[in-house]
Amino acid sequence: MILHLNESDFIRTNKPIDLSIPIHNGHQPVLAWYCAPVSIEPVMTDRFIGDVNQGGAVNFNTITFNPHGNGTHTECVGHISSEKETLNACLKEFHFLSLLISVHPEKVMNDRTQEEDRIITKETLIKALAPFEEEMESVNALVVRTLPNSSDKCSIDYSNTNPTYFSVEAIEVINFYEIDHLLVDLPSIDREEDQGELAGHHTFWKYPENPQKHKTITELIYVPTKVSDGKYLMNLQITSLENDASPSKIILFEIETLLSGENLKS
Predict the structure, then answer these.
(1) Mean pLDDT of all residues in 229-258
(2) Which residues have C-beta within 8 Å of that of residue 84, sequence separation ≥ 6?
(3) For residues 255 and 99, is the Cβ–Cβ distance under 8 A?
């Protein structure tokens, strides 16, 4: 199906680009925050068998997982607030004009730990955004792909690896451009061990001074290398779960422009 965005721009709904890492209990799932792998087990009682292969009439599984540590997920300000806001209550729109950029994190010595951190700095982000300056007024979602990029991101256990994170100044740049939805291929926008400060999260959501309940952060996505940087229409799908975070499915659609004299059927 072709969906027209305006007189000249359109998307092909049959050509989705899925950025989500599936939640599964198979070999080498992506993990973070010391979470256990996903458990998917059939319900078994003395009167019921929840597995067709074991003689049951239906497959009827109980699934145990943590949205923050098992696969792609989206979170709201309730992740850090005492007010316990839920993503299902905060997120009211699901389609956004988005910009995909790729960045090379900088290696910086951490004065506190004396470890080498990989950081997306203010300068790194500004450099990546520079070619798209004219697009920034129209987009309200930013998708950040870190380089080098590898499909290994779909099967890494990030726990205790000190993954790449954003500097507070970089998050301030994102706020300057009034980005409401930040999507990253990392387990967090903050350092793995930061004494619970979560400065990036607090800065993005302006919490507690001016909580931005409509804004979201999506973590643990994977952007295939063949997908080019640029502007897309994004569909952010979540479950109707009353929790600070939800598993999510992130779909990009390439925005195409009609050629002179071209006529497309809807």
Answers:
(1) 97
(2) 78, 244
(3) no
Phi/psi for 129 (5° steps) reads -80, -20
- Tokens 């992130």 belong to 250
Question: CA-to-CA distance for 8 and 111, rounded, in angstroms?
Answer: 52
d(CA 157, CA 2): 39
pLDDT tens for 172-208 read: 999 999 999 999 999 999 999 999 999 999 999 999 9
Question: Tokens 């999260």 label which residue?
Answer: 201
Give pLDDT tens digits for 198-230. 999 999 999 999 999 999 999 999 999 999 999
Rounded to two decimals, the pTM is 0.96
Look-up: residue for tokens 């007189």? 7
Residue 21, C-beta contacts closer than 8 angstroms, at least 6 positions apart: 30, 71, 72, 153, 154, 220, 221, 222
22, amino acid identity: P
Burial of 165 (0-12, 13-18, 19+ CB in 10 A): buried
Structure tokens at 75: 């979170």
pLDDT in tens, 9-67: 999 999 999 999 999 999 999 999 999 999 999 999 999 999 999 999 999 999 999 99
Output the six-digit token pair for 93: 């729109």
19 closest CA partner among 245, 174, 235, 266: 235
